[in-house]
Amino acid sequence: MIARWVPPSEKGMFVWTMQGGPFGTVVTFALCGQVISALGWKAAYYVTSGLIFIFYALWVFLIYDTPDLHPGITDKERVYIKEQIGTTVSKQKTKLPVKAALTSGPFLVLLWAHFANMWGIYFIATNGPKYTLEVLGFNMKSGGTLTGLPYIARLGAGVLFAAAGDYVRRKKMLSLGWIRKIFMLFSHMGPAIALIVMTYAGCDAVTAIVMLIVALSFNGAACQTSLQNHQDLAPNFAGSLYGIMNTFGSFPGFIIPPIIGALTNERNGVEEWRVMFWISAVVFTSATVLFWLFGSAEIQSWNDTNDPKTVASSDEEKQMTEIPIKEVATEDEGENERL
Question: Which stretches of the chain are assigned E, i.e. beta strand?
Fold first, then answer.
């Protein structure tokens, strides 16, 4: 994962941490296409599993829980990170108000928007290769590489959409709520339209691949919508909310395959797949409509951490957010006064 430190207050600027997924998909599709073509299906599982173990080993040896424990950063970097954490989120460990969150209209529509976003990604990631191979007639080598192209486009488009959204916000052209809603037209309606065009292209392979690329390029705008809105609603519970969203968002991974299996059991052609493309377009469109009607970028009342029933101390967070006097002493006087 490509990461850089971003203060939580910069709510539109975390796209760099989200681009590891598309990049990994590109590499996996291209690599597995070559491996399967040369060594068979089993070899693809061994190769990808081996790479996972390598990355896990790197994580164990290179990742640390807090800035104080990391041996590879400077004192200035350590102070900066702890300062930003300490001034942008609550230092108290609080219990997520589950009932309030799950009865919150803005969060529920966000939950569906994230479900729709993941539906599109799972559909293209797990069935894009199947469609290109079985319906469009690509061979394994070219099919794997071509199916990875949309994710390259999504990676680049995500950066551009993030920059565009942040520019609009910085110039105060639109409110944050309108930024989220307008970018939903790109992140969700764009893929919906592209998928419909793709299926009516029939066996025109060029148009089909172009529409796949267009679909995921537009979906890159999700860095300004469903991948970001939880931080707007409740920054103190952003991690917990995203965990709930990802759990719900994983459902398409096991909902989509049996639907496609039922549709293509008797005959595996464009007409049968067209139904699935329409279902996907409806999911995307419904999420857009609901978000425009009930979505919000305002901090919700249940984000308040001052409720004595939910506040608890946290030694780990204190360790991360309390800035030692000796370290801060090196800063200029104006900085010390602000701290």
Answer: 93-94, 311-312
